[in-house]
Hints:
Layout: H1 11-35, H2 40-55, E1 59-65, E2 71-77, H3 81-85, E3 90-98, E4 101-110, H4 121-184, H5 188-220, H6 225-240, E5 243-248, H7 257-278, E6 282-290, E7 293-300, H8 318-328, E8 331-337, E9 343-350
Parallel strand pairs: 5-6
Antiparallel strand pairs: 1-2, 1-4, 3-4, 6-7, 7-9, 8-9
Helix pairs in contact: 1-2, 1-4, 2-4, 4-5, 6-7, 7-8
The chain binds adenosine-5'-diphosphate and magnesium ion.
Magnesium ion binds at residues 269, 272-273, 318.
Amino acid sequence: MSEPTPPKPPQTQAARLARKTQSLDILYEVAASLNQAGSLEQLVDRFLGVLIDLLDARGGAVRLAAGDGQTRLAASRGLAPEAAGRGNPELVEIPVQYQGRVLGLYSLLLDRPPAALGEDLPDLLVSVGRHLGLAIEKSRLEGEARRLAVMEERNIIGNELHDSLAQSLVGMRLQLKVLGESLAREDLGAARYEVKALQRAMKQASADLRGLLTDYRLKIDEAGLAQTVARLVERFRRETGIAVFFQNECQVLALSAAQEVQVYYIIQEALANIRKHASARNVRILLNNEDDLYTVLIEDDGLGMSGPEEPMPLEHAGLAIMRERTARLPGQIVIESEPGEGTRIVLIFNAPPQGGAAAPG
Length: 361
Ligand SMILES: Nc1ncnc2c1ncn2[C@@H]1O[C@H](COP(=O)(O)OP(=O)(O)O)[C@@H](O)[C@H]1O
Ligand SMILES: [Mg+2]
């Protein structure tokens, strides 16, 4: 009835095996704690907590190199003098490294020397220091990337303000000067006319500003790209009477704020060009993705472009800016057009899934 039980391994081998699995557990738990989202401070603090628990240490600390060549205490637990006082604890210090660079060190207050806890524990602790180093470097890079994204977005807002508002202000300053001259001549008829013109310019500038703010507020509200484009398309239809077929075929459309802004403005410029140059009757806009590869297609059945893109004078910068925005995504853009054959723009870019990352700022 009973199966023969396999012979038990000798005791020492069992013990070694147990220690090995324990080492793996430690590595696993440390890696898991380092993989959770959060700030650098939270990361280091969580790391220390997990390690102290796993090794039954009395306390520990992490010190990281600061820019000025000094080190700074990044986290510490259980290092009050009483803790060190009891018995005869052992303080071990292990470097925190990334690719051979020492980023700092962590220390543990243990009741026994690490080797007494297992022959491979000293090596394990060094390896844990490398894991921490990698996580710290990754967290710093992510912080840097977020700051860059925010700066880039501010830069774009700056450009938009410059293109619309700054120009209106220059115009109004000129009109104001002319008004002053008319008044100095006591030419009331001219003055009245210039006041009217100024009122019109002022109204236009307010409308521009309102438009800009709406565009950006939409994104801040996280209406999402598809909905923002839908609104743009709706306005375009209403104002031009051109039929637009817009379809978002993406399963998920999870772009970073910076990418959303670029894609939105590329579509907006494409539509502006269709309105100004194409004399089109139909426009088609498609968004779709295959995993994290996204495609945006904008095509019209209008006049098409007259030739291969000849160098354009500066005021015709729309297509050049489109290419610049594409480079920033980063992505690729193809503009196909033949006289009489309409124009077709295909934009392709990658957007890694947004892993529930914290909002910038
Ligand atoms: N959809 C289109 N249909 C026809 N011509 C277009 C289209 N898009 C762009 N073009 C041509 O390409 C030129 C460059 O466009 P762009 O760089 O946006 O400058 P702008 O719109 O200020 O003229 C336009 O002047 C126009 O001749
Ligand atoms: Mg244009």
